[in-house]
Amino acid sequence: MAASTNMSSFPECQVKFYTKQVKYSLPDSIFSVPGNATSSELSDLINALLKDWSEEEWKTVEFDFIVGGQLLRLSLQELLDKKEISNETVIEIEYFERYPTPTPQDSLVHDDWVSGVQACKDWILTGCYDNTIQLWTIEGKHLLTIPGHIAPVRAVAWIEVGDPISTFVSTSHDETAVIWQWNQQTNAIECVNVCRGHARSVDCVGVDPSQGRFATGSYDHMLKVWCVGDQEDGALEANEGEGSRKRLKNDAGKNKNRTPIMTLAGHNEAITGLEWTSLEEVCTASMDNTIRLWDIELGGMKSQLTGSKAFLDISFSRLNRSLLSASTDRHIRLWDPRSKEGTVVKCVFSSHVGWVTAVDWSPVNQYHFISGSHDTLLKLWDIRSPKAPLYDMTGHEDKIMCVDWSVPSLMISGGADSHIKIFKSEVVTEDEPME
Amino acid sequence: MEKTPEAASDSESSVYSDLEEEEDANTSDDASSSNEQESADSNNDKDSENENLKDHHEDQRNGEYFLKKNSEEKKVEQVEEYAVDSSDEEDLRNTVGNIPLRWYDEYPHIGYDLEGKKILKPMNSDELDQFLKKMDDPNYWRTVRDNTTGQDVILTDNDLELIQQIQKGRYPDSSYDPYEVREVIYNFATEQEEKWRSKEPEERKTNFIPQKFSCLRMVPMYADLIKERFERCLDLYLCPRERKMRVKINPEELIPKLPKPKDLQPFPTVESIVYLGHTDIVRSITVEPVGQFLASGGDDMTVKFWEVLTGRCMKTIHFNGKVKNVAWCPNTSVCLIAVAVEEKVYIINPGLGDKLVISNTDSLLQTPLEDVGAQKQQIISWSTADNEQWTQGIRCTVVHPRDVHQITWHSKGDYFATVMMEAGNQSVIIHQLSKRHSQLPFQRLKGNVQKVLFHPLRPYFFVATQQYVRVYNLLKQEISKKLLTNCKWVSSLAIHPKGDNIIIGSYDKRLSWFDLDLSTKPYKTMRHHKKALRQVAFHRRYPLFASASDDGTVIVSHGMVYNDLLQNPLIVPVKILRGHKVTQDLGVFDCCFHPYQPWIFSSGADATVRLFT
């Protein structure tokens, strides 16, 4: 069943299509396609084949194609030339359903700049420059305004989402991180602990996978690890020496103040991004042009990745165990923290025209991530297409300061236009686990 | 035979000077003189040789001597002959060289002979002998003493005639008639011509065959003139001379080898953040020593504090006058900023950054002042802020007699200096924050002070007037250097963090780099801006400096200072940063670098502050 769509003078290529998505699979056969075929033409071809093949009514599906590990964005020949693949051989082309276009779902208006956002399954938590934390439902209904800080809030993170009580943490310019408990039934909020210890604004926070600890990074160059649960008195005593300065203020006998269980110094400048990579490992991005991996168990630095410009954010994917860094040089870089030799930077994604302030991996797909930048764009990327993002999502009118992709179907960004923009997209997972 | 013209004329003159001497010598023996005379009566043969020589002269001299020829021919002939055979008589002649003979007056001898024995002076005859001689010797009257040898010489008839002729003011040679019309008739005999032809051209005594012409006018142009002149020129051209090493210089090589800007990364290249909020000219900006915050002040009578990374305005303080200058205290253990508003300098605690530092700063400033009321009438007065001001952040006010134009901190953060341009001798004042005390460092000040600056490491103080920068040693209280800026009006001044190099910007578009160890003149002057420079700045860590100008640009340059004292600083302009709009002919007013990152902030007349990274 040799179907040829050749009508031009371009050299033809022998191609073989395959897919990991079972519902779109076709029998093995070799096709001859013109070299100038683009992905939409190939997509039409696959659709025509599938239509022939299937018994039922076939609904047209947009496909994307991967040749030599890269997404087909130009014509087939151009990609082959770039990858230096001979068109004499049979080229294997993987196809899969194109990522569905994200649609703007909601826009949440705040009173001031939104600098931190994180969603969990039903709620969205945002940190705002008017010193408050806002709680919303995923549908965009405002639940609660929490005035707890005395300076702009920089970052928020859920610690544990329970029923009815959930806990989360917020960090602020006022040098503290505050642990909150929220009762969803009564919509009551309680400040559980105030974590004091940093000497400058606390700009990033990350909760460990076991949800028992969290780490904060600050402009004072320090990385501090805190305990979420009740602190043993002994631990308190032990930390009294170093933490005495930070525990000056006690709230009317009730000691809400908390001191870090660990302080890690090493960065020469502000820590701007932080992520737990495992139970014992935290990685931090800093303005001193380095990404460092810290061993929390031993309390020291494990390794260091050096860049050339100040980093602004970092994200770690549990699916492919790679790091993404956002930087002031407007590029996003993909790092493999495990490789010791050769280039640690696996890929550079360049499309933003301003500082990239935030990146976040897809929680379910090892290839996708989103990035937000000062150029007001939120971009969805596939790591197999480093030159062009899959989608640009417009909407913000000022700098994007934070992004979140914790809920697979929601891409959320917040920025200096005091808005949270929510984009909805169908969840695309891989049908097959990665090898 | 070829000689350079100079050499030829030299030899000529020497020949003639010899001539006279020889004649003297010749006349000493009378016998030979007649001989000479005879031979002088030219037989043709001899003359022809003479002619050869003569003609050569003619050739050289274009016949200048032509008329004298006859008489001189003979003499030349004599010279030639004499030069050959007079050598044995030389002993008698003077051996002492050309020295005054009176040196030998006290000695019995005069000079030495070849064996080194003294040559005795001839006996000196006394008066009586003289008289007897006079009576006896018929030649006495023509005897003279040759002073160089001490010998008596009897003059010949020829000599006498010569002397008489000279005395009469005539030509020395009586036979010479200057008005005589002469014909020149020369010709080779046949055998002579054959002989001439048989010789190699190089060996021929003359390079032409004499021919017979009735007069000089008839002599045609010498046929080989051009050729010979050409060969002569060729000889001159080819003759070996002092060898000059010609250095071949490729004009490209004269351009100094500068590294490519790409290799000098990092430096700011693109505009990243615009800090919007001011409503009028932003005159001055200053970055917190840690680099998290930025303060800016301007004509809209406010000072705004910004978060560097986000562009967020964190705080605004209003004043009742235009803000001329803001300067963050470089001491990281206090949190203070000095703001110049008209004739007041406000010391402000902005309350940004480390909370502990903020509270420490306040308690430091709340400590009561020592009793300084007794001080004799100060032109500067310090006052603590009232409650309203305190809530704004103002902690102290320093009132000056005139408008304050500049504030600059010492690197330790305790002292700061202010400049009042209109205050004459009192333009510069140094304040001490911890004692809240001010003093006038200079009794007299020459010129109109524009900017002042503390040396980052040593106790030096820079005072820039319109055309000079004076460097004062604060410890010794004396001037240590005076830098000649070569510009008309200095606008700004910045010092390298190591303290050995300063740059100045001027309103006549120039930026000059001074190496203080090298010279009091600029090491390098750059004219890259199209309009007046407003500010210059050095980076604290990176080898970068920048200049801001009214043309709306900031030019960033690489300025590497080496530890090796022998190596000159490397200066390469690397980037022109554009972004500010020129408003009412005013562009960028201030620029300053981030303390850690290779970033630069600039503020301008378009009411914005911009960050370039």
UniProtKB/TrEMBL annotation, chain A:
Region (Disordered): 237-258
Positions of the NLE domain: 14-80
WD repeat spans: 195-226, 264-297, 314-345, 349-391
PROSITE patterns: WD_REPEATS_1 (PS00678), WD_REPEATS_2 (PS50082), WD_REPEATS_REGION (PS50294)
UniProt-annotated location(s): Nucleus, Nucleolus; Nucleus, Nucleoplasm
Family indicated by similarity: Belongs to the WD repeat WDR12/YTM1 family.
Name of protein: Ribosome biogenesis protein WDR12 homolog
Automatic annotation (TrEMBL), chain B:
Positions of the BOP1 N-terminal domain: 104-268
Localization in the cell: Nucleus, Nucleolus; Nucleus, Nucleoplasm
WD repeat copies, ranges: 275-316
SMART domains cross-referenced by the UniProt entry: BOP1NT, WD40
UniProt keyword list: Nucleus, Repeat, Ribosome biogenesis, rRNA processing, WD repeat
Xref: Pfam families: BOP1NT (PF08145), WD40 (PF00400)
Main location: nucleus
Residue span of region Disordered: 1-72
Record's compositionally biased regions (Acidic residues): 18-27
Extent of Low complexity compositional bias: 28-42
InterPro entries: BOP1/Erb1, BOP1_N_dom, WD40/YVTN_repeat-like_dom_sf, WD40_repeat_CS, WD40_repeat_dom_sf, WD40_rpt
Compositionally biased residues, Basic and acidic residues: 43-72
The keyword rRNA processing is assigned to this record: yes
Chain's role: Required for maturation of ribosomal RNAs and formation of the large ribosomal subunit.
Family: Belongs to the WD repeat BOP1/ERB1 family.
Entries under HAMAP family matching the protein: BOP1
This protein's name: Ribosome biogenesis protein BOP1 homolog
